Prior knowledge:
This protein is α+β, with helices and mostly antiparallel strands. 27% of the residues lie in helices and 30% in strands. It has 2 domains: 5-118, D-amino Acid Aminotransferase, Chain A, domain 1 (2-Layer Sandwich); 126-273, D-amino Acid Aminotransferase, subunit A, domain 2 (D-amino Acid Aminotransferase, Chain A, domain 2). Strands 9-8-7-14-13-10-11-12 form an 8-stranded mixed sheet. Strands 2-1-6-5-3-4 form a 6-stranded antiparallel sheet. α5 packs across α7 (260-273). The structure holds N-(5'-phosphopyridoxyl)-D-alanine (PDD). The site of N-(5'-phosphopyridoxyl)-D-alanine (PDD) has 15 residues, from α5 and β13.
Amino acid sequence: MGQIEGVFNGSFDLVENIKISPLSRAYTFSDSIYEVVPFYNSKAIAFDMHIERLLRSSNELSIALDIEQASNQITQLISNCPSENGYVYYQVTRGQDIVRSHMYKPLMDIETFGYVLPFSFETKTLKVMICEDIRWGRCDIKSTSLLGNVMQMNSAQKHDCDEVIMHKENILTEAGASNVFFVKNGTVCTPALSNNILPGITRALLINEIKKINIPFIEGIFDLKDLSNASSAWLSSSTKGLAPISEIINLDNSLNTQDPVYLKCKEAFDYKFFS
Ligand code: PDD
């Protein structure tokens, strides 16, 4: 596994030395939430927004996280990392049950676990598959319960695809591990936030840049037909950045990865966060 540094319940150690109980509700119920905090040139990107979302996810599940401790640990993992570029994964779990019960006890001893990985933020062009959004009804919470995403992403992999774009009854939601943007008649479009979409930090940062450079932009309800009329499309996430889509294998359209509207968005975003 190499010398990957982690932190479990506040103690820093190599990840290979960290031991976690099988009675953890992370293991039995996926009763956990998480964050992925990217850093570039040893500086976290949108640190406060990631911390705020971590707090919101834990509040939504009534997990009593000490957010100051969590943010100090994330900061320390970043500053200890020998690589200047990478990301921290940080997970908060409700705690351990001796008797497995769906109904948790109040005030359980939560478990926190984080680790840091070097990562190079290279733009990769993606081949994508459309699939049904089979996930639960609170995808706005960054929970580790990701089986819907895992099933659909692995079905995409069998078709030699890198990602999926999901829809619920024809209405676009998001991708398997990213948010979706497309350009239709020169306007950048993205599905409006709802319980079916994770409020991506990259999504929010990009929207801010798009507004600054005055490119027409709409957040709304879009369907597969809107996507099939798109001239370009891309996915956004903390680890992918803005990744252009070259092909959607099961949708009739043709996408241009060199579309000037996409390139302008990408240039503005990369200039702000990766220069
Ligand atoms: N995934 N939607 C889903 C379902 C995601 O899993 C992610 C991120 C995003 C984009 O969010 P952000 O821009 O804040 O990274 C949208 C992370 C990177 C992961 O699970 O590894």
